[in-house]
Design a protein that fits this description.
The protein is mostly helical. It has one domain (8-115): Globin-like, CATH 1.10.490. Helices cover 61% and strands 0% of the residues. It is built from six helices and no strands. α2 (11-28) packs across α3 and α2 packs across α5 (78-94). The longest helix has 18 residues, at 11-28. It is globular and about 40 Å long. The termini are far apart. The structure holds protoporphyrin IX containing FE.
Length: 119
């Protein structure tokens, strides 16, 4: 049987490492860094990891907000969305994830876009 995306991203340990790099990339990214200036970074890393563990076919560990509730009222632009996607792709590459998995993650992010941009 084909492995789930969760397994191919390295399971809970692999995704925890990827999510930590994603949040570090956001904090250092001039396009979006200010959005996270007041964030509790370790807590956000855990939420990002849980979100992707659950969303990629792993255990049901995410107990955070829906994407609509999390981003409502922030007036997030297309440019910011693209910057966040770039940060995710860079984190995947840094963690040795291949092009096929990167394309799957990209597809999932674009499916979530209507709940994030200008909501
Ligand atoms: C599909 C793309 C995205 C996904 C999957 C995503 C995921 C998440 C998750 C899981 C949370 C935590 C929700 C909670 O607190 O329960 C969150 C919060 C947040 N997101 Fe996103 N996000 C995306 C795009 C963006 C973009 C483009 C921006 C703007 C730069 C952004 C800015 C934020 C901010 C500022 C928070 C709150 C951080 C905090 O509580 O400290 N997100 N996001």
């Amino acid at each position: 049987m084909a492995q789930s995306l969760y397994e191919r991203l390295g399971g809970t340990d692999g995704i925890t490492s990827i999510a930590a790099d994603v949040v570090d990339n956001h904090a250092a990214n001039p396009e979006v860094g200010k959005r996270f200036a007041d964030s509790d970074i370790p807590a956000l890393k855990q939420k990002a990891a849980d979100f992707f563990i659950t969303g990629s076919g792993g255990p049901q560990v995410y107990e955070g907000k829906s994407m609509l509730d999390a981003h409502r009222g922030m007036n997030i632009s297309d440019e910011e969305f693209m910057a966040v996607v770039d940060d995710v792709m860079d984190a995947l590459a840094k963690n040795g994830i291949g092009e096929g998995e990167k394309a799957e993650v990209l597809y999932i992010f674009y499916q979530l876009r209507p709940d994030v941009v200008r909501v």
